[in-house]
Design goal:
The complex is a heterodimer. By secondary structure, chain A is an alpha+beta fold. Chain A has 17 helices and 18 strands. Chain A folds into three domains: 211 residues, FAD/NAD(P)-binding domain (3-Layer(bba) Sandwich); 141 residues, no CATH class; 132 residues, Guanine Nucleotide Dissociation Inhibitor, domain 2. Chain A has a seven-stranded mixed β-sheet with strand order 6-5-14-15-16-13-17, with helices on both faces. Chain A has a three-stranded antiparallel β-sheet with strand order 9-10-11, with no helix packed on it. Chain A has a two-stranded parallel sheet with strand order 1-8. In chain A, a hairpin with a 2-residue loop joins strand 2 and strand 3. In chain B, 37% of the residues lie in helices and 18% in strands. In chain B, strands 1, 2, 9, 10, 11, 12 and 18 form a seven-stranded mixed β-sheet that branches. In chain B, strands 7-6-14-15-16-13-17 form a seven-stranded mixed β-sheet, with helices on both faces. Chain B folds into three domains: 199 residues, FAD/NAD(P)-binding domain (3-Layer(bba) Sandwich); 137 residues, no CATH class; 132 residues, Guanine Nucleotide Dissociation Inhibitor, domain 2. The chains are: A alpha+beta, B alpha/beta. At the A-B interface, helix 6, helix 7 and helix 13 of A face helix 6 and helix 13 of B.
Chain lengths: 514, 525
C-alpha cells in the first residue's frame, strides 16, 4: 500500500487488490471476539520509515504512536528485571543485578545507536547490483564505500564483528547478568530460525536501536487503535491521492504476454489489465504461484526455490477478564504497559531453538508479550484486557503431526509457560486465538508462515534479496515489480520496500521503459 | 646479556620454525627457543608404545604453502608426502562413501547413492576450487591496514575482487553469498545424500566450536579447495608429522639459526614499550632486538608479556578472543589390522564417523551447554596402512580426532572425563570394526587440557583461536592488530593466532618473517 500511495501521489492510476476483507496484511486490527480488538499479528511498530510517515502525512490520516518504552522480564526465581526508557531508571533496575552492567548499558546503547544511524540510509536505497559494470551500480558502490569511510576504524571493526558474531557472544563481552543478556538478545532472534548463539544475530541487535534515532517521529511503540491503524492511515493517504482499493479481490494469476506483465486474473475469473504490476506478496508466492514456470528463466526459479522462508514463530491473542498479575511483581502497574519478555536466560532461549532445529515447537518457548489495552482502552471493554503474545520457536514444518492437529498442544504449552509467571492466567482467559505459522500462511498468505517474507540472514539480504541479481525490485518479467518484505531491506513494519519499489517504478516510467 | 640476537623466536611450532628459517635466510641472527625436548609443537611424531610411532597432534598435511616447500627445499631435507586416495571414507549407519582425489571417480561412486548428487558434484568442486583459487593469494598476504591502506594494499584487494569478478557476475554474487551461510544450508542447496553432506561438513567444522547449522560455517569449506590441497592432496608425512618439523628445523639451522630445546620462556622482557628479549624459567636472560612469538595470543599477551605494557582496551580484546577448544585426540596402538566390514574389508587410511548433519548438530548441542558429545563425530587416521614403518610389522597405529570435547566442562572436569572419553571412542570404533577393542595394545587420550599442557595450546584450541569470520583477516587476533605487529615495539606474532589462522600452512610464520624484515630499519635502530 505504501507503493500504491506513492504511485498515486505521482499521478498514476493505481488499483490495490487485497484478498482478505481487511487491508494491511499482517498489520491488522480485528475484532475477533465481540468488544476485543486484536492486533492479530504484528503488535508493535518500530521501524516505520520517517520518510514514509512524512511523505504520506500519516499523522493527518490517523496514525499515532504511543511510546512503548519499557521491558519487563519476570524471572523464575521470583525476581524481575524492569528496564524503563530513561537512563536513571534503567541504571537502578540493572544495578540490582550488577553495577558493572548498569554502567555499561548506556554506553552499549549509544554505540548501537551510532551504528544504526549509519545503517539507516541503506534501508531506503535500492541495492547496487554488485559485480555489474553498469555505471549506476558502480556509482552506488562508490557511494557506499564513501559512507563506510565516515566510520571510525573502531566503529568499522565493531560493525564487522556485529555482522559475524552471535548475539550471545557479543553481549558476553559487555555484560555479566544472564537475565539482561537474555532480554537483549531476544531482539536478535525475533522472526528468525536462529538461536542467540548463532553467528550473525548480533547484527539484528543493532536494528533494534533504529527506532530510537528517528528524531521527531519517535516510532517505537503501540499504534493507537492497533496496528490496523498503520494500514488504515496509509490507505486513507492512498485514497486521498486517488488510488482505488478493492478488498475481497483474490489475485490468482499474473498475466504475462511476450515476457511482459499485462494484468492480473482474480479467482472469480475477472481480468484486470495494467501497465505495471507491483506484488506485495512474498517472492515464492509471486513467482511460483502467480506465474507459470515457463515465464521465468530456470536459474531465477532455482534462486527463488532455495530462498529460505521457513517461519519460526506463532502468535497467541487472549481476551482477559482482568489484567494479568505477575507473581514477580503483582498488580496492574507500569510493568504491564511495555514489552513483557519471557526468556529468563540465554540458555533458555537457545534450548527453545534446539527444539525447533529438529522440527518441533519449543517445549518452553520464548514469549514476547504486551497488554496494549493498558495504554489504549479502546481495544477492550472497560476493565477487560487483551494480551498479545509473540511465540518463538514454532517451526512451520513439524516433524511429527500437522499444525491443525497440534495447535491445541501448542496453545497449552504457551499457557503453561506463561502460568509459571502469571499463575491465575487460565482463570482470567475469556477467549483465545492461537495462530501457528501454518495459520499465518492460510490467513494472510505468508508463505511458510514467515513474518518477514523470508529469513533475514546475510545470504538473502541487501543485493542478494530475494535472489542475486534481482534485488532492485525489478523481476525477469518486464512491468512486474516486487514491493513487499521479500525485497530489500526485508521484513518489519517499515514501509521501506514499498517506498523503494515505487521509486524504481517511477524511474522506469520516466525512462519510458513502462 | 653478552649476546644480542636479532630475533628470538618463542616456541618451535611449525610456524616458529618457518619464521626462523626465513629470518635466518635473510641473514638475521636468529635464536629459536622451544620448551619441549623436540621442536614441532603440535606437528609431532611421538612414541605411543615401544615400537609404535604416532602423529600425536596434527595428523595430515595438505595446506602447507608450496612456496615454503620450495624455498626451504623441504623434500631434500627429508619431507616425503604420502597422498591419501581416497581422501576419506565417510561412514554412517550401515553405509559408507569414498571421496577420491579424482572428481570423476567420486562421481562414479556417488551415482549409486543419488544421481542428482553425482550430477552436482563436479559443479560443486569447480565452484569451490574457483573461489579458493581466487582467494589463495590472501593466505600469504598481510591483512590491509584498515585505518590507512596503502595504494599497494588497495590495489592488492582490488585485484582479488577482479579475480572473483572475472569468473562472471553470477558466480561472483554466489561467492559473496556463501561465506555467511551455514554449511548445512550451503550443502543442502547442492546435495541430498546425508553422508556426503556430513563429510563435507566435518571438513568445515573440525576444530571450531560451531555446529553445521551455525551461520558462517560454510566458509570453512574453502580452505579444502585451495590450490595447495588440489595439487598435492591431503597427505600423511612419511615417518609421521614430526618429520616435517625436523625438515623445517634443518632448513632453519642450515640457514644459520640457533635452535635450543628444553628452553622454557617464562617472560618476554621489555622496557618503555619496546621489547628487549626473553627470560627463561631457570632465570637466564637472553637479549634480542625483536621477538617473534609463536605462542597463541592469550599466552603471549596475558602470560608472557608484562601487562603494564598493554593498553587495557587491547587486553579486553585479547580476553574476548574466542579459543575454547573442542577437540580431543585418542590414539591407539593395535596388535594387528582391524577388520572393516563396511565398504571394503581392509581398513582405510582415513575414515570418519559422521552419519548425518543432524548427528553433527546434536553433537554440538551437548558442547554448547558444556558437556562432551553423547555421540561425537570421529575423524580417524590409520597411517600404518600407507606408512607401515610407524609400527612393528603387521601392527598398526590409529589416531582419532574427537569432536566435540569442550575444554570448559560445565559441570565436570577432565580428570574424570578423560577415560570415559577414551571408552566412548573405543565403543564407537568397535561398532565399525567388531573386535577392535581386543586389538588395543596401548591407548593415549589427549583431552583439551592435555593438548594445552603438552603443546602449550591455550584452552586446548588447535587453531590458536576460533577461525570464525569475526576472528579472521583484519580482525585476527585483535581488531587493528592483524599485521603481525603488536602494541609492544619489536614484538611480533608468528603463530596461528595471526592471519590466516590455524592448520599446517606455515603462512603465519612466513608472513610474520616478511613483516619483521620490512620493519628492520626501525628494529635495528
Amino acid at each position: 500500500m505504501v507503493t500504491a500511495a506513492y504511485l498515486a501521489r505521482a499521478g498514476k492510476r493505481v488499483l490495490v487488490l487485497e484478498r482478505r476483507h481487511v487491508l494491511g496484511g499482517a498489520a491488522v486490527t480485528e475484532e475477533v471476539f465481540p468488544g476485543f480488538k486484536f492486533t492479530v499479528c504484528s503488535y508493535v511498530c518500530s521501524l516505520l520509515r520517517p520518510q514514509v510517515i512524512r511523505d504520506l502525512d500519516l499523522p493527518y490520516h490517523g496514525f499515532e504512536v504511543i511510546p512503548q518504552e519499557s521491558t519487563f522480564q519476570p524471572l523464575p526465581d521470583g525476581r524481575y528485571l524492569f528496564r524503563r526508557g530513561n537512563e536513571a531508571d534503567a541504571f537502578q533496575a540493572i544495578a540490582k543485578f550488577s553495577r558493572r552492567d548498569a554502567e555499561a548499558y548506556p554506553r552499549f546503547g549509544r554505540l548501537m545507536a551510532r551504528l544504526a544511524k549509519f545503517i539507516a540510509p541503506t534501508l531506503t536505497m535500492t541495492p547496487p547490483d554488485v559485480g555489474s559494470l553498469n555505471p549506476a551500480d558502480l556509482r552506488k558502490l562508490y557511494a557506499l564505500n564513501r559512507q563506510v569511510k565516515t566510520l571510525t576504524e573502531e566503529e568499522l571493526y565493531t560493525f564487522a564483528r556485529l555482522m559475524t558474531m552471535s548475539a550471545a557472544d557479543y553481549l558476553d563481552e559487555w555484560f555479566e547478568t544472564d537475565a539482561l543478556k537474555a532480554g537483549m538478545c531476544s531482539s536478535g532472534i525475533i522472526g528468525t530460525l536462529l538461536g542467540p548463539r548463532s553467528p550473525g544475530t548480533a547484527y539484528v541487535l543493532m536494528h533494534h536501536y533504529m527506532g530510537e534515532i528517528d528524531g521527531a517521529y519517535r516510532s517505537w511503540g503501540y499504534v493507537r487503535g492497533g496496528m490496523g491503524m498503520v494500514s488504515e492511515s496509509i490507505a486513507r493517504a492512498g485514497r486521498s491521492f486517488g488510488a482505488d482499493i478493492r478488498v475481497n479481490a483474490d489475485v490468482r494469476r499474473i498475466l504475462v504476454k511476450d515476457g511482459r506483465a499485462v494484468g492480473v486474473e482474480l479467482a472469480t475469473g475477472e481480468r484486470i489489465e495494467a501497465k505495471v504490476i507491483a506484488s506485495g506478496a512474498d517472492p515464492k508466492r509471486t513467482f511460483l504461484k502467480f506465474l507459470e514456470r515457463s515465464d521465468l528463466p530456470a536459474d531465477f526459479i532455482r534462486g527463488i526455490e532455495r530462498f529460505k522462508i521457513e517461519g519460526s514463530s506463532g502468535k497467541a491473542n487472549f481476551a482477559l477478564k482482568e489484567a494479568p498479575s505477575f507473581s514477580a511483581l503483582p498488580g496492574n502497574g507500569p510493568q504491564l504497559q511495555g514489552a513483557i519478555s519471557i526468556g529468563p536466560t540465554v540458555d533458555y532461549i537457545e534450548k527453545a531453538y534446539d527444539d525447533a532445529k529438529y522440527g518441533d515447537f519449543s517445549h518452553r518457548p520464548f514469549i514476547d508479550m504486551c497488554v496494549p489495552s493498558t495504554v489504549d482502552p479502546t481495544l477492550a471493554p472497560p476493565g477487560k484486557h487483551i494480551m498479545s503474545c509473540f511465540i518463538q520457536y514454532a517451526p512451520y514444518t513439524l516433524r511429527k503431526g500437522t499444525w491443525p492437529e497440534r495447535r491445541e498442544d501448542f496453545a497449552e504449552t504457551v499457557i503453561d509457560t506463561i502460568e509459571e509467571y502469571v499463575p491465575h492466567l487460565r482463570d482470567i482467559i475469556l477467549h483465545r486465538q492461537v495462530l501457528s505459522p501454518w495459520d499465518l500462511e492460510q490467513m494472510i498468505g505468508l508463505t511458510g508462515g514467515n513474518i518477514f517474507h523470508g529469513e533475514l540472514t546475510p545470504d538473502q539480504l541487501f543485493f542478494l534479496r530475494p535472489t542475486p541479481g534481482w534485488a532492485q525490485y525489478r523481476t525477469p518479467i518486464k512491468g512486474l515489480y516486487l514491493c513487499g518484505s521479500g525485497a530489500h531491506p526485508g521484513g518489519g513494519v517499515m514501509g521501506a520496500p514499498g517506498l523503494n519499489a515505487a521509486r524504481e517504478i517511477l524511474r522506469d516510467w520516466a525512462l519510458l521503459r513502462v | 646479556m653478552a649476546d644480542t640476537y636479532d630475533v628470538i623466536v618463542v616456541g618451535g611450532g611449525h610456524n616458529g620454525l618457518v619464521a626462523a628459517a626465513y629470518l635466518a635466510r635473510a641473514r638475521r641472527r636468529v635464536l629459536l627457543l622451544e620448551r619441549r625436548p623436540a621442536v614441532g609443537g603440535a606437528v609431532a611424531t611421538e612414541e605411543l608404545a615401544p615400537g609404535f610411532q604416532a602423529s600425536t597432534g596434527a595428523d595430515v598435511c595438505g595446506l602447507l604453502r608450496p612456496e615454503i616447500v620450495d624455498d626451504l627445499n623441504l623434500p631434500d631435507r627429508g619431507l616425503r608426502l604420502l597422498a591419501l586416495d581416497p581422501e576419506v571414507t565417510a561412514v554412517g549407519d550401515h553405509t559408507s562413501l569414498r571421496i577420491w582425489r579424482d572428481v570423476w571417480r567420486t562421481q562414479a561412486e556417488l551415482i549409486t547413492k543419488s544421481s542428482r548428487d553425482a550430477e552436482a558434484y563436479p559443479r560443486f568442486t569447480a565452484f569451490l576450487r574457483d573461489f579458493a583459487t581466487a582467494l589463495d593469494p590472501l593466505v600469504t598476504m598481510t591483512p590491509p591496514n584498515v585505518a590507512a591502506p596503502t595504494l599497494g594494499e588497495q590495489m592488492g584487494l582490488l585485484r582479488r575482487a577482479l579475480a572473483v569478478r572475472r569468473l562472471g557476475k553470477d558466480t561472483m554474487q554466489q561467492m559473496l553469498r556463501m561465506p555467511p551461510m551455514s554449511v548445512r544450508d550451503f550443502l543442502n542447496e547442492w546435495f541430498e545424500t546425508d553422508l556426503l553432506k556430513a563429510s563435507f561438513a566435518v571438513d568445515a567444522l573440525v576444530g571450531t566450536f560451531q555446529g553445521p547449522f551455525s551461520p558462517g560455517t560454510a566458509f570453512g569449506l574453502v580452505p579444502h579447495f585451495l590450490p595447495a590441497v588440489q595439487g598435492g592432496g591431503w597427505s600423511f608425512v612419511k615417518g609421521g608429522m614430526g618429520t616435517l618439523a625436523s625438515a623445517l628445523a634443518l632448513a632453519a639451522r642450515e640457514a644459520g639459526a640457533t635452535i635450543r630445546t628444553d628452553a622454557d620462556v617464562r617472560r618476554i622482557t621489555s622496557t618503555d614499550g619496546r621489547v628487549t628479549g626473553v627470560e627463561l624459567s631457570d632465570g637466564e636472560r637472553i637479549a634480542g632486538r625483536a621477538v617473534a612469538s609463536n605462542a597463541d595470543p592469550k599466552r603471549t599477551f596475558l602470560h608472557l608479556i608484562d601487562p603494564e605494557e598493554l593498553d587495557p582496551e587491547f587486553l579486553v580484546h585479547v580476553r574476548n578472543f574466542e579459543m575454547n577448544g573442542v577437540v580431543a585426540k585418542v590414539n591407539f596402538a593395535l596388535d594387528r589390522a582391524p577388520g572393516f566390514p563396511g565398504a571394503s574389508d581392509a581398513v582405510p587410511a582415513h575414515f570418519r564417523i559422521c552419519p548425518s548433519l543432524e548427528y553433527l548438530e546434536r553433537a554440538y548441542d551437548d558442547a554448547k551447554y558444556g558437556s562432551v558429545s553423547v555421540a561425537p563425530f570421529l575423524d580417524v587416521f590409520v597411517p600404518t596402512v600407507i606408512d607401515p614403518d610407524l609400527a612393528p610389522t603387521g601392527k598398526h597405529v590409529v589416531s582419532t580426532l574427537v569432536q566435540y570435547a569442550p575444554y570448559d566442562l560445565r559441570p565436570g572436569n577432565w580428570e574424570a572425563e578423560g577415560d570415559r572419553l577414551g571408552d566412548k571412542v573405543v565403543g564407537l570404533l568397535e561398532e565399525q570394526m567388531p573386535g577392535f577393542e581386543k586389538l588395543v595394545v596401548a591407548r593415549q587420550v589427549l583431552t583439551p587440557r592435555e593438548l594445552e599442557s603438552r603443546f602449550g595450546l591455550t584452552e586446548g584450541h588447535i587453531y590458536h583461536g576460533e577461525m570464525t569470520l569475526d576472528q579472521s583477516l583484519v580482525l585476527r587476533p585483535v581488531p587493528g592488530w592483524s599485521r603481525y605487529r603488536t602494541p609492544v615495539e619489536g614484538l611480533y606474532l608468528c603463530g596461528s593466532g595471526a592471519h590466516p589462522g590455524g592448520g599446517v600452512t606455515g603462512a603465519p610464520g612466513y608472513n610474520a618473517a616478511r613483516e619483521i624484515l620490512a620493519d628492520w630499519n626501525r628494529i635495528s635502530s
